[in-house]
Write a structure and sequence with these properties.
Largest sheet: 4 strands, parallel
Helix content: 25-40%
CATH architecture: 3-Layer(aba) Sandwich
Order of helices and strands: HHEHEHEHEH
Number of strands: 4
Strand content: 5-15%
Distance between the termini: 59 Å
Number of helices: 6
CATH superfamily: Rhodanese-like domain
Strand order of the largest sheet: 2-1-3-4
CATH class: Alpha Beta
Radius of gyration: 19 Å
Number of domains: 1
CATH topology: Oxidized Rhodanese, domain 1
Structural class: alpha/beta
Shape: elongated
Length: 161
């Protein structure tokens, strides 16, 4: 009886919840891509489905490890750019704190670069983990896999062609 009353109230409510959801299906993959250079103790690797899920949930920061020009010409929307090859030699912790903030070392951070031929995301994730960031994962499929599944990339005006 309670179920019937609840369904009736939900149906007539202007803020009712759909009984059958209209959810976008997660993109498929064959599990996470893991590079041959991965080592025990590295942050975990995630696949496209998990990357998309975390993106849709929203409380995550994607970090693009490529250089500024590659970042500008196609990155996962909302990502920040921390180009691994241009990290400062001194005060790396201060640099990360200036980009990521000091207060949330437990926030989910997903590092990525262009795809399987690029291991910058792995090296950046190792650095973050070494400096006390506790919730770092690596999306090794990167921007190429994101684009392959038609999930949309942000492009700067100089790359809109």
């Amino acid at each position: 009886m309670a179920l019937g009353v609840g369904l009736l109230a939900n149906t007539v409510s202007p803020d009712g919840i759909p009984v059958i959801g209209k959810y976008r299906s997660l993109s498929g993959g064959n599990g996470p891509v893991v590079p041959p250079t991965a080592e025990p103790g590295d942050p975990p690797f995630i696949d496209i489905a998990r990357a998309q899920l975390e993106f849709d949930l929203g409380d995550v920061l994607f970090i693009d490890a490529r250089d500024e020009s590659e970042f500008a010409c196609g990155t996962i929307p909302g990502s920040v750019n921390i180009p691994f090859e241009y990290l400062p030699d001194d005060d790396l912790e201060g640099y990360f704190e200036s980009v990521l903030g000091k207060d949330r070392k437990d926030r989910l951070l997903i590092t990525y670069c262009s795809g399987e031929e690029c291991d910058l995301s792995l090296h950046l994730a190792r650095n973050l983990q070494d400096l006390g960031y506790t919730n770092v994962v690596i999306f090794f499929g990167g921007s190429r896999e994101w684009e392959k599944y038609d999930l949309g990339l942000e492009r700067g005006p100089e790359c809109e062609n």
